[in-house]
Specification:
mainly beta, Elongation Factor Tu (Ef-tu), domain 3, SH3 type barrels, 6-stranded mixed sheet, 5-stranded antiparallel sheet, 2 helices
């Protein structure tokens, strides 16, 4: 299996009556989403050539090659858009793509395995690592801050965590 694809946006429905779509960009530079075209669906089976046409409230209006009508655009509502990893810029040492974190083992500062990252969530107050472990009845949500996660070692496939008291009990 090759490099993971990275979630970069979603189609939020049609814009107007001539086949344009509303695009939500999840990129640090929102307009950069068009630079990563062609984008793919989550399963990688469908490719989308995206051209942004204008900025609109909460995103962009854009054209997808082959989408000509409002009905075709509406049918794509909710489709998530992925870019190939090698299309994206390299990140500084202290920044990570969510896809890089999923699957990493989480160890405490003493080396005890706490679990594995299954998802990265953000509800507006910062990223949370959803950690599943054999000793957890429910997943733990570990705040992804330097205080709680002092080390991310992608090469070794692990995260060293100093979680808040009681989080993994």
């Amino acid at each position: 299996m090759g490099e993971p694809r990275i979630l970069v946006g979603a189609i939020a429905g049609s814009f107007g009556v001539h086949g344009e779509v509303r695009i939500k960009s999840f990129c640090a530079d929102p307009e950069a989403i068009a630079e990563y075209s062609p984008l793919t669906s989550e399963d990688g089976a469908t490719h989308y050539e995206l051209t942004l046409t204008r900025v609109i409230k909460n995103g962009f209006a854009g054209r997808l090659e082959g989408v000509e009508t409002k009905e075709e655009a509406d049918a794509l509502k909710g489709v998530t858009l992925f870019a190939e990893r090698d299309q994206l810029p390299s990140l500084p040492d202290d920044e990570f793509y969510h896809a890089d974190l999923i699957g990493l083992d989480v160890l405490d500062t003493g080396g005890t395995k706490l679990g594995t990252v299954r998802n990265v969530l953000n509800h507006g107050a910062g990223d949370l690592l959803e950690v599943h472990g054999p000793n957890l009845k429910t997943p733990a949500l570990l705040p992804f801050t330097l205080k709680n996660v002092p080390t991310v070692d992608l090469k070794s496939g692990r995260i060293i965590a100093d979680p808040p008291e009681g989080l993994f009990e």
